[in-house]
Structures are given as C-alpha cells and as structure tokens.
Amino acid sequence: MARNRALVPEAKEALEKFKMEAASEVGVTLNQGYNGDLTSRQAGSVGGQMVKKMIESYENSIKTK
Q1: 8: phi then psi, degrees, rounded to nearest 5
Q2: 5: helix, coil or strand?
Q3: CA-CA distance, 53 to 48, in Å (whole number)?
Q4: What pTM was computed for the model?
Q5: pLDDT band per the 50, 70, 90 thresholds, residue 5
Q6: By three-state DSSP, how is residue 30 classified?
C-alpha cells in the first residue's frame, strides 16, 4: 500500500523545494499543488533525479567521515 505523506512532517517544505530543484534540472515545469498532467516519463525523470542527488549526497557524507 502506498503512502503519500512524509515520515517527518516538518520536512515537507524542504522536500517540496528539493522536488522543484530536481524538476528544473531535468527541464520539467512543476506547478505548486496538483501536477497530474505530467507524463509518466516526466514524473519518472524528476523522481530519478531526486534519487540520484540523494545517493550522491550520501556517498559524499561517507567520504567525509
């Protein structure tokens, strides 16, 4: 079952900002609120970019330890 809520509600604003940054990096225009008009390819590229940046951040944190 899918959950569409943040595990840490206080992080919601930061996650939205992160999503908007990732979307702009891959050339997808997101609106505040509903974005159901995106194609699967566009939504996937935004999600993929987010995961790529999260992995990169984690790898960098490991290097500095």
Answers
A1: -115, 100
A2: coil
A3: 9
A4: 0.79
A5: confident
A6: coil
